[in-house]
Design brief:
Elements: E1 2-6, H1 10-21, E2 25-30, H2 33-43, E3 48-51, H3 52-58, E4 61-64, E5 84-87, H4 106-113, E6 120-122, H5 135-141, E7 144-149, H6 152-164, E8 168-171, H7 178-195
Parallel strand pairs: 1-2, 1-4, 2-3, 4-5, 7-8
Antiparallel strand pairs: 6-7
The structure holds NADP nicotinamide-adenine-dinucleotide phosphate.
NADP nicotinamide-adenine-dinucleotide phosphate binds at residues 7-11, 30-31, 35, 65-68, 73, 88-90, 220-222.
Amino acid sequence: MKIGFWGSGNMARVLGGAWSVAGHQVVFGSRSAEKSRDVAAEIGFTATGGTNDEVAESCEVIVSTVRAVPSSLLTTTSALAGKVIIDLNNRDFPREYQPEEFLNSLAEATQKDVPAARVVKALNNQAMEVFNSDAVALREAGVQAFMAGDDHEAKQVTAKLLNDIGLKPVDFGPLSNAWLLELQADILRTYMFATGNALVTPGFIEAPRAEPRFGERRKGTY
Ligand SMILES: NC(=O)c1ccc[n+]([C@@H]2O[C@H](COP(=O)([O-])OP(=O)(O)OC[C@H]3O[C@@H](n4cnc5c(N)ncnc54)[C@H](OP(=O)(O)O)[C@@H]3O)[C@@H](O)[C@H]2O)c1
């Protein structure tokens, strides 16, 4: 398949490399055709470089690695009708990200209500059906349980209790991160409602460790 990229940065480079290895024809696009040609030369295989317009014209599938809408990158979007565009962009996400609408997590409300207690957010991301399995089965399946809290000892107590019922605790940092675990539940529940599958649980699956195949991370973002 002929796969094009808008932007020739980190993600374009590594995915372009990976799809080249998989036998696809890759075209890197950029504001600077010289830059995209350099990236194509770095990747090798049959990869080529050009402008973002050329990618829009010539590719069947286009991966947008630019946090901007196509019309701001291209002279015309007319070639895009019917084309598949994969958008892998994420919003800017500063470490201290605290969006107003989610700021008041239920866990923090409890902590605020009872300041002398030690609140830990946990177990909000497992449907009750998960516990139809016993600890041995859950442990074997590697089911994880995220937790957030400010008190180290309280988290240790919680971790032990999670472990006792077969869940592998994942420390997700301070209680100010609880809103993210509550958001995670929204994602899970949306999936559950759509599929009827209540056995899905969140977890971090680590990719295997390996040397960079297509160059190190350069200035860029996650
Ligand atoms: N890096 C990761 O691990 C990762 C993982 C998942 C998702 N993402 C998302 O993927 C996107 C790209 O990340 P990245 O790490 O590849 O960043 P990057 O290396 O900075 O590449 C982004 C490319 O976008 C283009 N660009 C930037 N500003 C532009 C503008 N104003 N107009 C037109 N083009 C512009 C640049 O391409 P040219 O200079 O070639 O035009 C740049 O190389 C982001 O939305 C990020 O959140 C990143």
